[in-house]
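Open question from group meeting: does this chain pack into something compact, or does most of it stay loose? Before anyone orders reagents, we agreed to write out a predicted structure and look at it together. Recording both the input and the output here so the notebook holds the full record.
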Amino acid sequence: MVTRGFEGRRPTPDMALRTPPGQALTTDFPVLSAGPTPTVRLEDWSFVVKIGPRPAATWSWREFQALPHSTFTRDIHCVTTWSKLDTEWEGVLIDDILAAAGLEAPPTPFVLAHGFDGYSTNVPAADLVSGRAMVATKYAGAPLTPDHGGPARLLVPHLYFWKSAKWVSGLQFTETDTAGFWELRGYHMYGDPWREQRYHDDP
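Structure tokens returned:
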């Protein structure tokens, strides 16, 4: 993983209340990836929702942009110990993606998020709904850049940021909690920053 431009700073008292243990605040946005940045052309982009191996719905970029878009401001926390407060995102809530796929609720307890680069990460389905997560296409009012996962990335801000899969290509609903890329390499299966769940043996 590669980090550029991270310099931690001492938080003010109100910021400290929003900063998980072991984290340092940054005003920059460090770049971290498991591998090289892929080139994903909008004309080639698609997003699929699967239930097990079966596709339930697929959208092209134009079709995805026609879905309801939402904005929210959230704090984000990376397992490499930086946190960034009040980040601004725009995209499609997972709730709205499920509704567009004809699903009233998550069909299984777990999800594997997949990326165009072959990356995957697991997330409990309950952590993606009720306005908690989105597929983000904009950051700070501008299209999401490739180094930050553009044209679209999963955003699950209440978990460590490796769960927010870059270059996301789909969500696969699964009956079992299946480890993804970093989870297979020793990272925690859940990844709660407030409990410092960085590695598999953290409580």
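Observations to bring back to the group:
Residues 23-29+43-195 form a domain with the Sulfite Oxidase; Chain A, domain 2 fold (CATH 3.90.420.10).
The two ends are 24 Å apart (CA to CA).
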